[in-house]
């Protein structure tokens, strides 16, 4: 029995780095991560800290059954998982009656955006629910596609890279049910709007509205269904990405805006701003006798409107 356990440990490594014999060795740390990653074990603890390695593929470890497995159990009773951290923070909040914070950190492409989604999904499924609470849960979950549309972009590292930081505050009532949320974003990479490196794209929303927007909407905004027509969308020479469906993502975002609580007029105003940025990028200038003047009247017409 002990021998087989040692053999398994040699194959899959240890699930908590504090159990490593050579715990001060960086090489041993990396080797343990490598062993576990080869076995699709992407989570490992360092005490109460969770280390995750992005597998860049779907793993069947986020089902409702998995959520139930981690619900209400001791932190070290089951294998390392983002759900264990989520549940531990939730139970600490309820028992200690103090605010709790989960800090997600890592380099570009590490999986921070996905980790925050998994935490929200866990609370949406496992927390107490009423009709009102279900509406709040839906809004919390649907905030993600909207934030990603306006704040994420394809980079050389990955296809859905967050180009902003965010602080997400979820409020719970005395029963432990989520009753509200507050999201503060910061450090938005605004320079991406006017310039992208080769192989990178602008923020998703620009491509979504061009590819997925209804004909009537595009007509009102004065836009064409051709990303190549817009200077701000072709600087990176990568307007289309095989792993991204801008058309279907547009439907998700449009529905999410309604769920969150934007009315039709507010959505129209929002899209007017997006369209005006695209028109602004297409304004052309020429020089005449040391004076600069605009040569593209149609863009000015739409911008003024």
Automatic annotation (TrEMBL):
List ligand-binding residues for ATP: 106-113
Q: Which Gene3D superfamilies match?
A: Kinesin motor domain
Where it sits in the cell: the answer is: Cytoplasm
- Membrane-crossing residue ranges in chain numbering: none
User: Locate the Myosin motor domain: which residues?
Assistant: 13-305
Keyword field: Actin-binding, ATP-binding, Cytoplasm, Motor protein, Myosin, Nucleotide-binding, Repeat
Q: Which InterPro entries match?
A: Kinesin_motor_dom_sf (IPR036961), Myosin_head_motor_dom-like (IPR001609), P-loop_NTPase (IPR027417)
Keyword Zinc-finger attributed: no
Family assignment from sequence similarity: Belongs to the TRAFAC class myosin-kinesin ATPase superfamily. Myosin family.
Q: What is this protein called?
A: Unconventional myosin-Ic
């Amino acid at each position: 029995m002990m021998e087989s356990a040692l053999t398994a440990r040699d194959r899959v490594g240890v699930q908590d780095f504090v159990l490593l014999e050579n715990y001060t060795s960086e090489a041993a740390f990396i080797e343990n991560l490598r062993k576990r990653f080869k076995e699709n074990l992407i989570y490992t603890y360092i005490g109460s800290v969770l280390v995750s390695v992005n597998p860049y593929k779907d793993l069947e470890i986020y089902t409702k059954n998995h959520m139930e497995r981690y619900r209400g159990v001791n932190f070290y009773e089951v294998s390392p998982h983002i759900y264990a951290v989520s549940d531990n923070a939730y139970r600490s909040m309820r028992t200690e009656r103090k605010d709790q914070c989960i800090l997600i950190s890592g380099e570009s492409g590490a999986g921070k955006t996905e980790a925050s989604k998994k935490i929200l999904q866990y609370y949406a499924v496992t927390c107490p629910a009423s009709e009102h609470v279900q509406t709040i849960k839906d809004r919390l979950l649907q905030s993600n596609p909207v934030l990603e549309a306006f704040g994420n972009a394809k980079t050389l590292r990955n296809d859905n890279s967050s180009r902003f930081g965010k602080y997400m505050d979820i409020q719970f009532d005395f029963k432990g049910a989520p009753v509200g949320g507050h999201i503060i974003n910061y450090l938005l990479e605004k320079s991406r709007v006017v310039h992208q490196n080769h192989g990178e794209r602008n923020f998703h929303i620009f491509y979504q509205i061009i590819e997925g927007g209804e004909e009537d909407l595009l007509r009102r905004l004065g836009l064409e269904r051709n990303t190549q027509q817009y200077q701000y969308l072709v600087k990176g020479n990568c307007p289309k990405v095989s792993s991204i469906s801008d058309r279907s993502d547009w439907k998700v975002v449009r529905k999410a805006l309604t769920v969150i609580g934007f009315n039709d007029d507010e959505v129209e105003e929002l899209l007017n701003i997006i369209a005006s940025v695209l028109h602004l990028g297409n304004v052309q200038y020429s020089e005449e006798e040391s004076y600069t003047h605009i040569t593209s009247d149609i863009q000015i017409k739409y911008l003024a409107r």
